[in-house]
Amino acid sequence: MSGEGQVGGIEASGLAARRGGRIVFADLSFSLAAGGALRITGPNGVGKSTLLRLCAGLLAPAAGTIAFDPPPGRPPLGYLAEAAALDGERPLAQALGFWARMDGLSHPDARVAAALADVALADLATVPVRLLSTGQRRRAAFARVIAGGAFLWLLDEPTNGLDAAASARLEVLVERHLEAGGMAIVATHLPLRLPAMRTFAFGTPL
Ligand SMILES: Nc1ncnc2c1ncn2[C@@H]1O[C@H](COP(=O)(O)OP(=O)(O)OP(=O)(O)O)[C@@H](O)[C@H]1O
């Protein structure tokens, strides 16, 4: 798992996943240490989101193991999934503040304000979530991950709906996270320009 001098990591070995009674992928292994990132790519339906769900612990592997060794003192993982799970009726900052409190974060309002500034949504802090555009909603969901301060970011198609400037900003924010000793696993069809990122390309669906 994590080598000498490194703090935290994840190692998957011989993983297989089953969805709806069907094996989606089998015999998949990878390891990632603090400061590293893995980009998961491949055709639709090959199992990218499924792999993230396995890493998040939301789905049990059909075979194989995942050893996750987060460093102490910070939340282990933040997960950017398809749905943002933000209350549409609440102003954006409040909707994010709700999760920051649920996650037991210290200084939740300050964290949310900083995360909104990171994703260039500070001006919309008082606007109800339901009025946000698709791309703004995606950025809001990413702000939730940033505010969470977790070690491992699991990002499922994070650039979906983002314009070029927002995609470039996302790359910078992921890089900042890695430089601060975090890790990221990103399922995406798009290239991401990150020096510490390796790519794992799934083949054709089983
Ligand atoms: N809840 C579910 N029940 C049954 N089968 C599912 C379920 N979720 C996903 N699958 C199936 O598992 C396979 C992998 O799905 P997954 O969403 O992981 O693919 P993906 O690589 O992320 O695809 P995409 O590029 O379209 O996002 C697909 O064949 C899909 O139909």
Summarize, please.
This protein is α/β, with parallel strands linked by helices and 206 residues long.
Characteristic key phrases:
206 residues, alpha/beta, five-stranded parallel beta sheet, three-stranded antiparallel beta sheet, 30% helix, 26% strand, globular, disordered N terminus, binds adenosine-5'-triphosphate, ATP-binding
Q: What is the global morphology?
A: globular
Which stretches of 5+ consecutive residues score pLDDT under 50? 1-5
Q: What order do the strands of the largest sheet run in, or round the barrel if closed? A: 5-6-7-3-8
Strand content: 25-35%
- Average predicted local confidence, pLDDT: 91
The percent of residues in helical segments reads 25-40%
Order of helices and strands: EEEHEEHHHEHEE
Main sheet: strands, sense, barrel: 5 strands, parallel
Distance between the termini: 28 Å
User: Which ions, cofactors or small ligands are bound in this entry?
Assistant: adenosine-5'-triphosphate
Keywords: ATP-binding, Cytochrome c-type biogenesis, Membrane, Nucleotide-binding, Translocase, Transport
Protein name: Heme ABC exporter ATP-binding protein CcmA
GO molecular function: ATP binding
Pfam family, one: ABC_tran
Could you characterize what this model shows?
With 206 residues, the protein is an alpha/beta fold. The protein is 30% helix and 26% strand. The chain contains five helices and eight strands. It has helices spanning 48-56, 92-102, 108-118, 134-148, 164-179; strands at residues 9-19, 22-33, 37-41, 63-69, 77-80, 152-156, 183-187, 197-201. Strands 5-6-7-3-8 form a five-stranded parallel β-sheet, sandwiched between helices. The longest helix is centred in the C-terminal third of the chain and has 16 residues, at 164-179. The two termini are 28 Å apart. Mean pLDDT is 91; it is low at 1-5. Bound molecules: adenosine-5'-triphosphate. Adenosine-5'-triphosphate binds at residues 19-20, 24, 44-50. InterPro entries: AAA+_ATPase (IPR003593), ABC_transporter-like_ATP-bd (IPR003439), ABC_transptr_haem_export_CcmA (IPR005895), P-loop_NTPase (IPR027417). Keywords: ATP-binding, Cytochrome c-type biogenesis, Membrane, Nucleotide-binding, Translocase, Transport. GO terms for molecular function: ATP binding.
